[in-house]
Amino acid sequence: MSSRLHIYNTISKQTEEFQPIDPPFVGMYLCGPTVYGDPHLGHSRGAVMMDILFRYLMHLEYKVRYVRNITDVGHLLNDADEGEDKIGKIAKANKVEPMEVAQQYTNAYHQALQKMNILPPSIEPIASGHIIEQIEMIEEILANGFAYESNGSVYFDVLKYAETNDYGALSGRKLEDLIAGAGEERRALEGQEEKKNPNDFALWKKATPEHIMKWNSPWSVGFPGWHIECSAMSGKYLGKQFDIHAGGMDLLFPHHESEIAQSTACNHTNPAKYWMHNNMITINGQKMAKSLNNGVLIEELFSGNHHLLEQAYSPMTLRFFLLQAHYRSTLDFSNEALQAAEKGFQRLMNAAGKTDSLTTANSSDMDIQSWVDKLYEQVNNDLATPQVIATLFEAAKWINEIDAKKLKISHTDKDLLHTTYHTFVFSILGLVAEEAENNEALDGVMQMVLDIRKTAKENKDWTTADKIRDGLKEAGIEVMDGKEGSNYKLS
Question: Which of 12, 252, 467, 477 has its CA 20 to 30 A from that of 79?
């Protein structure tokens, strides 16, 4: 693999060298959440994937504008063009304003991501704040002949678009198969008699009297469709074509496919040069679903308050767990996997803490430059974070052996090892030492406990000394005895 960044492009179905449209500037867009509930595990994966890419592009000294939207209107139940708005339904049930619902769950999303050390985007637009831009885009699509009005609603004409474009280029779906699966029975079932074709999707919907969120438009008092918001907001802040558009694989069809169609119909170009998609999280081999009662909220993971959880897991454990699988592979959640991630994360942190104080020699027993080159090759290979972590573990083993005087390292190599290890662990992978804020208090208590144990050993009171050591071990604290006294670590 070349030393330049390569990423898998969903639309070309191959890994390509990343070449920005207008270097050194990079524009990237992530479809953010529909804020009608607390963030769940699935929300964390795309956010972490884009956070790694955001961090790495900045490390490569690109000037990045990262846009991640908030959907607060237009996303109807079952991702359909008919029925209730997801946020509107919650607002009615609780007798509050829809924006109260949206704000509550937007705050919850931000708090969860902040705990995981996910950097905020450059711009975070909300759909309801960009109604004018969406209306203007719909007007352009109508003027170009790719949409039609029906009873106050506006629909995208998929068959007209398909005469000159490939509707299905991203998802791999064939239009003839979509048409075959969408007959008169489905049209009647979903109340889609307004459409010329059941595959046509709403750009604007005329609101029923009971619909809460609605705006004036040239066609009716209504609200925008789900797909048009991302096209309008990405175009406003990143231009007619930008570098990277990302999201979960569940958005491939119809959301992202429809985004491409809308933008092409309006601006005569695919909105993004590269399309990136993260895979799903399963729970013990099963898809997360309300019917299976196996959905886990991010905050439930942090508190341990869920029937599938054996314990609480920290934000960094979750982040490390997500990075242990490639973003395009399915990731299966289990207590065993989280507990292994907890240990792996601590192993990296322990090694990081030793890199400052390593004793140097005149020569090195390791080829540090080759190790550095391997790390960059791996992250350049479509953000291969599992391989990056394995290579960091390789260095962690060296660090422990150098610390134990079993390996030698030169002063120059020590500086290179320290700088690169810290850059990848903290700056690129975005991990942080979680105990930092409690260290001072814990250190004070532990010093007192170790002093009591030291006095017991000096008095040959082995029973008390062993009792303290064993009690601490049960509490998750390992006592390490050495020539210069005793120390401790969280195990």
Answer: 12
On whether both 393 and 469 belong to a single domain, the answer is no
Residue 396 and residue 293 share a domain: yes
Looking at the predicted structure, is the pLDDT value of residue 440 above 80?
A: no
Last residue within a domain, chosen from 228, 246, 278: 278
185 in a structural domain: yes
For residue 436, the model assigns a pLDDT of 46
| Whether 108 and 201 share a structural domain | yes
Domain that holds residue 482: 436-490
Which residue, of 248, 278, 308, is where some domain finishes? 278
The pLDDT value recorded for residue 169 is: 95
* Number of domain units in the chain: 3
pLDDT in tens, 46-87: 999 999 999 999 999 999 999 999 999 989 988 889 889 999
Whole-model pTM above 0.90? Answer: no
1 belongs to a structural domain: no
Residues 408, 458: one domain?
A: no
291 plus 268 within the same structural domain: no
- Residue with the bigger pLDDT between 294 and 311: it is 311
- Name the residue among 320, 400, 409 with its Cα closest to residue 369: 409
Whether residue 120 is found in the same domain as residue 24: yes
